[in-house]
Design goal:
alpha/beta, 358 residues, 16% strand, six-stranded mixed β-sheet, six-stranded parallel β-sheet, Rossmann fold, 434 Repressor (Amino-terminal Domain)
Length: 358
């Protein structure tokens, strides 16, 4: 059974735009179409109960007035926001940009939009963003945590919000995760330099409170234990406060002051490696002639540098897509079981590591 609203009418009157820009209300749409508020609400939410002629009249009024429905109000009624929170360490890092692209591609096919938050590696900022996302009633969360402790993330998920760790193992926690084996990646980088004949190797690392930095260090040390003694190689770690280009460049004097100075440098990510390349050039050191450099992530610009950067490649886009698929599985609620999806890293050798020390 259908309703024709408040009687027949030839059509909505011509709309006069308000003198100042503001949001058009549902009351104004009803007045323009000469129908009740309930009829406009039915056209928006349950159009099949409204007579076709009235339905078209209301839709024409909506078009003329420029009315935009409130998803916040709809969310309060239905409990769904169609928004997914995404919290990453640094959106300025192309690694995270590509990872988010993979997640967004999957989620938009299912009608979701992303709320993207960049913590700049700050646990305090991460907690603030998570509180805001919960207040906005997001339907799920993808997060690369800024600290080792996952208690806050587990608490967030415990409020009934599906949560997936991205580029971070879940350990014993009741969560899903999509990860890359960073221990293996660190091992690949260190092994590569030792096999080229480097004996004095430095590892420029970010804060080890970030799990990825800790795991990459663990892998480099594992390579040293298995090959270093036989090759007569040593590994010295230098830590920086953040994994940015600026911190990489600023660390170069400290690297060059080591005794003996390193002939090979492993960087915890490609941004640090770019900074090291800049700093070495400013110091008059050639790459790879004086110092070989290996990065991590293999972001887009790695192959465009001069010299092109040797780097440990992560499947960035695929990582984001896999995390989004896990989140969709959990939001469906159809017998979902938490699980890990793990990718393997790959060493991409380019000119910056050269053929070995002189």
């Amino acid at each position: 059974m259908t309703s024709d609203g408040d009687g027949r009418h030839p059509g909505p009157e011509r709309w006069q735009a308000p003198g100042r820009q503001r949001r058009v209300t549902i009351r104004e749409v009803a007045d323009l179409a000469h129908v009740s508020l309930g009829t406009v609400s039915n056209v928006l939410n349950n159009p099949s109960v409204v007579a076709p002629s009235t339905r078209e009249r209301v839709r024409e009024a909506i078009r003329q007035a420029g009315f935009v429905r409130s998803t916040a109000a709809q969310q309060l009624r239905g409990g769904r926001s169609r928004m997914i929170g995404v919290v990453v360490l640094d959106i300025a890092n192309p690694f995270f940009t590509e990872m988010v692209r993979g997640a967004e591609h999957v989620l938009r096919e299912h009608g979701y939009v992303l709320m993207l938050c960049s913590t700049e590696e700050s646990p305090e900022q991460e907690r603030r963003y998570m509180r805001i996302l919960e207040e906005h009633r997001v339907d799920g969360l993808l997060i690369t945590p800024a600290e080792q402790d996952l208690d806050r993330v587990v608490e967030f998920a415990g409020h009934g919000i599906p949560t997936v760790l991205i580029d971070r193992e879940r350990g014993a926690q009741g969560l899903c995760s999509a990860t890359v084996d960073d221990v293996r990646g660190g091992e690949l980088a260190a092994r590569h330099l030792m096999e080229l004949g480097h004996r004095e190797i430095a590892f420029l690392n970010g804060p080890v409170t970030i799990r990825q930095c800790a795991d990459r260090r663990k892998g480099a040390r594992r390579a040293m234990r298995s090959l270093g003694q036989r090759a007569g190689a040593s590994l010295v770690e230098i830590g920086v406060a953040s994994t940015t280009v600026e911190h990489g460049e600023a660390a170069v004097p400290q690297l060059l002051a080591l005794d003996p100075p390193p002939t090979g440098v492993i960087c915890a990510n490609d941004l640090l490696a770019l900074g090291v390349l800049r700093g070495l050039a400013a110091a008059g050191r050639s790459v790879p002639g004086d110092v070989a450099v290996v990065g991590y992530d293999d972001v887009t610009f790695a192959s465009m540098l001069s010299p092109a950067l040797t780097s440990v490649r992560q499947p960035k886009y695929e990582l984001g897509a896999a995390a989004a698929e896990l989140l969709l599985e959990e939001t469906s609620g159809n017998g979902h079981e938490h699980r890990d999806v793990r990718f393997e890293p790959e060493l991409v050798v380019r000119a910056s590591s050269g053929s070995g020390p002189r």
